[in-house]
Specification:
The chain is of the alpha+beta class. Helix content is 23%, strand content 46%. The protein is built from 2 helices and 6 strands; from the N terminus they run E-E-E-H-E-E-H-E. Strand 2 and strand 3 form a beta hairpin. The chain is globular. The model has no long low-confidence stretch (mean pLDDT 85).
Amino acid sequence: MHVRILGQWYLIDQGGDGWEVTNTEIVVKFKENVSQAEIEAFNAAMGVQILRTNLDGSYYCRILNGADPICTLLAYYGSGLVEYVLVRNYIILL
């Protein structure tokens, strides 16, 4: 589950352990039928820059416009273009 504490998002597992969610990076895997032109246009419209492509075809991306990462994640899910989208997490102790 994602929770927001003092303006920062965290991913909390069932055991209560937490990971800080970065506010600037997501991982996106687009569906196979989505063209490169569609990917580039959608990322540009979302204010997202591709940092690198992974071997599985997913992309590490940076959110450029300071948008909330969870809102960006939900917009990608709602687009119907993606297989999955994840926010990057860092291990911290809560």
